[in-house]
Every structure is written in structure tokens, then in C-alpha cells.
Design a protein that fits this description.
Length: 93
């Protein structure tokens, strides 16, 4: 039996968490025009805010990959989701 089949519950939980995290990111984009009007910011500023997520992912991914090879994928994914949740909390404040 493969490792994936043995850990099906854990794998489904990780996939659900990642799905929810990226759904949260996707839900922010359609409401950005409302925030633009309320806060009086330009489309360029909103574009930079949205692009900052991709830039951060581009910069962190190689290091996270090496770290996951060293200490294990589960620990890195859980740590990443915790950091992501904390940063999302800061974003909403």
C-alpha cells in the first residue's frame, strides 16, 4: 500500500487547508475596487499589493523546498499555513 493511501485523511486535510487559503486570496481580488474607493487608493497600488503575494511566493519557495527536504514536508506545510494565517490576520487589521 502506498504512503499516499495510508495517509489519506492527513492528505485530504492538508489539501483542504491549502484550498481554503488560496480561496481566501481569490476572494480578495473581486472586492478590491470597493476598498480602492473607500481608502482612496489607485489601481496601481492595488496591483502592487496583489503582486506582492506572488513575489513573496517566488522568493520563499526555493528555501521552503530545501527546508522541506531537510525536516519534512508536513512541518513546512503546517508552518507555512500558520504564517499565512497570521499574515492574513494582520492584513485584515
Amino acid at each position: 500500500m502506498s504512503l499516499l493511501l495510508r495517509n489519506r485523511g492527513a492528505m485530504l486535510l492538508v489539501m483542504l487547508n491549502i484550498f481554503l487559503a488560496f480561496t481566501g486570496i481569490g476572494l480578495v481580488v473581486p472586492i478590491m475596487p470597493t476598498y480602492m474607493n473607500e481608502l482612496g487608493i489607485t489601481g496601481s497600488t492595488v496591483g502592487l499589493l496583489v503582486a506582492s503575494f506572488s513575489l513573496a511566493q517566488l522568493l520563499v519557495s526555493p528555501f521552503a523546498g530545501r527546508l522541506s527536504d531537510r525536516i519534512g514536508r508536513k512541518k513546512v506545510i503546517v508552518a507555512g499555513l500558520i504564517v499565512f494565517a497570521f499574515l492574513e490576520l494582520l492584513f485584515c487589521l
